[in-house]
């Protein structure tokens, strides 16, 4: 059976009126919640997004890389297949978002250079090249001199380079801003509310405040709590907080926060870099992502320290040291921002997208460092779950049932 393109499927749904009666509450205003809400609104659903800080958290800190090949790891074939499928959706996703929001979506498609600082780091590149060649992914090995012809600002002391052409990047903050406009243009609403799914008679009926009010009025039996949002389907897309919100319902969704610290630099000269640069620097990893306005994003640490959003001096030092070793010119750049985001990580590094085990609740979380990359595929999967459509290819790997659904299992 041939699956219709996402935009064709959305148009058909709107024309048929299938989804116009479906009310959807989306808990979480990060990239996954926003992308899902927008595609649901495009499909004709009545959408309300609930989040006190839309586009904050991991989305605000993210570098925006769409790099399935350079991030591929051994033993993660399902993630590589899903990431590649989602990366292939990004050009149409960006074009449709630009049309709906009226804002340009700067999808930079110059590719990635994966470089090694010394000969030990070069072994990391060799392993990555072997992995990609095993899966028939296009990759080219270059000596450092050839790499500097592509990116003259690279250090002359580099030991080697891989070129991965079919990768890209976006600015997540601009994408999130465009998504807010696009959702509103499609009739969606935003409510600045810290919310959780509302359970009634063994079914989720929408969202309610996650924090009990200090003074509660007496509510008539059978009536909704003040500020609750009724919905036919609720999408729980609250990043790392999803696990706690699900536990409130007795559900097991194993997601934990992984801290990533990120810097934003503004070089004295524009266009220091054109491509994404990933590097192994004496055993540490660093990436540099250029923006069209000249800014360079440098990241990112991966720290399993719980829900700690602090920026630390050691992490800033290491990121700056490694970035300058790869691109010496960055030593003269202004440090314009240091921030930390909490990535929502799962035990197997695959997100959790699908029915929760409680009627009326769909989960969409646990994307780790791949939230931007996987947003288009996830949004299509959420639409399919909400409207009872066939799942897009490779989204079946995200099934929450792989972990069990109940806390006591």
Automatic annotation (TrEMBL):
Keywords: Oxidoreductase, Thiamine biosynthesis
Pathway: Cofactor biosynthesis; thiamine diphosphate biosynthesis
Species this protein is from: Intrasporangium calvum (strain ATCC 23552 / DSM 43043 / JCM 3097 / NBRC 12989 / NCIMB 10167 / NRRL B-3866 / 7 KIP)
EC number: 1.4.3.19
PANTHER family xrefs: GLYCINE OXIDASE, SARCOSINE DEHYDROGENASE-RELATED
Catalyzed reactions: glycine + O2 + H2O = glyoxylate + H2O2 + NH4(+)
Name of this protein: glycine oxidase
InterPro entries according to UniProt: FAD-dep_OxRdtase (IPR006076), FAD/NAD-bd_sf (IPR036188), Gly_oxidase_ThiO (IPR012727)
Enzyme class: oxidoreductase
Entry keyword annotation includes Oxidoreductase: yes
Annotated GO CC locations: cytoplasm
Biological process per Gene Ontology, one example term: thiamine diphosphate biosynthetic process
Pfam families according to UniProt: DAO
GO molecular function: flavin adenine dinucleotide binding; glycine oxidase activity
Every FAD dependent oxidoreductase domain range: 23-383
Record flagged with keyword Oxidoreductase: yes
Taxonomy, superkingdom: Bacteria
